Design the sequence.
């Protein structure tokens, strides 16, 4: 575990926190900018839910591959290099996702985008654990709050640009411009080191890390459902115009952002275990409410409830994995990150397969049921 003294040798505490928040913002901003493009990709290529699920599986495959080796890369090259390269890769691939209609070329672009998402997701969480440990107060929720803030700005911004008639390519280039400005400001203060140079290329989670990873997987699967399928649900089943499909994720991200920015004080007051249990039940009820709704405005209310419930679960889980003793921190954080983020990346593909075999309503109901498992498992967590 790295101390605040180590951080102060390369950057002040405030600049390290600033760069970490920008990294989380970039990740959320780029990821959410993809959400409004999903219904457009489906319409442009004329594919069904099953094929769309396969495309999303490519996104998840690229991300999981990158995450599985990012712990090693961060240990060898440092958080700064991995985060910068990952951000640039997303900037290169996003405009391609906005214009390509050939399935083979789309697969390549989606894999590249997934690799960038996976690498930055692992590296920024390693940096967050280091910076949080060096801080005099808990700040993990605020980091994830910037991810959510980036998410809502990305979803709303992309949806607004498409809504006023800007082409998907033009809108994606605007996202790229904001991302480049952000990474230029963050790069000088990102940590030039990682969680430990001796981290193996890949390690399986075990003990408490495995339990935390499974819980993280389920919560991230719910987030992935909001990212990739909320727009499809609203457009296909609730009659919303395709140009405004990103509002589903925006409603989810809005309440998540507010809850995360106030999450550190909420956790201090009510306790981490209660936040895990109540939050997961709240998120499950939100999905159920959206499925039972008769119109898209009511479905948006359900998505907002999901965001409020999921908000502080993941920050609590990352704090817990940094304090467990079953695995070294340099191995535990990448291991849990890989398993957890598999939910947001591989989960939507699973939802697509279930939707193709039955219906999208049934697939999302499975996610709602899985969230109740998190509430049950929360009793076994000690923080």
Sequence:
């Amino acid at each position: 575990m790295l101390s605040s003294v180590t951080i102060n040798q390369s950057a002040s505490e405030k600049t390290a926190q600033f760069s970490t928040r920008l990294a989380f913002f970039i990740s959320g901003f780029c990821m959410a900018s993809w959400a409004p493009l999903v219904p457009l990709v489906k319409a442009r290529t004329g594919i069904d839910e099953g094929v769309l699920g396969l495309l999303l599986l490519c996104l998840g495959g690229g991300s999981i591959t990158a995450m599985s080796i990012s712990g090693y890369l961060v240990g060898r090259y440092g958080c700064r290099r991995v985060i910068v390269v990952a951000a640039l890769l997303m900037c290169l691939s996003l405009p391609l996702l906005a214009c390509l209609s050939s399935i083979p070329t789309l697969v390549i672009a989606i894999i590249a985008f997934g690799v960038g998402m996976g690498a930055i997701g692992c590296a920024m969480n390693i940096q967050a654990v280091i910076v949080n440990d060096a801080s005099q107060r808990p700040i993990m929720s605020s980091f994830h709050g910037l991810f959510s803030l980036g998410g809502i700005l990305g979803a709303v911004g992309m949806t607004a640009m498409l809504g006023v008639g800007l082409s998907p390519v033009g809108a994606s280039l605007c996202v790229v411009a904001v991302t480049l400005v952000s990474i230029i400001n963050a790069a000088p203060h990102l940590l030039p080191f990682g969680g430990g140079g001796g981290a193996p290329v890949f390690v399986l989670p075990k003990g408490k890390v495995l339990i935390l990873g499974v819980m993280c997987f389920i919560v991230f699967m719910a987030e992935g459902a909001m990212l990739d399928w909320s727009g499809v649900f609203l457009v296909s089943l609730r009659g919303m115009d395709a140009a405004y499909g990103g509002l589903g994720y925006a409603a989810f991200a809005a309440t998540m952002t507010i809850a995360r920015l106030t999450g550190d004080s909420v956790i201090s007051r009510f306790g981490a275990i209660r936040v895990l249990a109540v939050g997961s039940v709240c998120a499950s009820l939100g999905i159920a409410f959206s499925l039972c709704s008769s119109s898209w405005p009511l479905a948006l209310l359900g998505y907002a409830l999901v965001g409020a419930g999921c908000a502080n679960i993941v920050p609590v889980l990352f704090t817990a994995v940094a304090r467990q003793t079953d695995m070294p921190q340099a191995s535990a954080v990448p291991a849990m990150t890989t398993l957890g983020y598999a939910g947001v990346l591989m989960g939507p593909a699973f939802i697509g397969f279930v939707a193709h075999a039955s219906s999208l309503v049934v697939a999302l109901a499975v996610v709602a049921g899985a969230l109740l498992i998190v509430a049950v498992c929360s009793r076994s967590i000690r923080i």
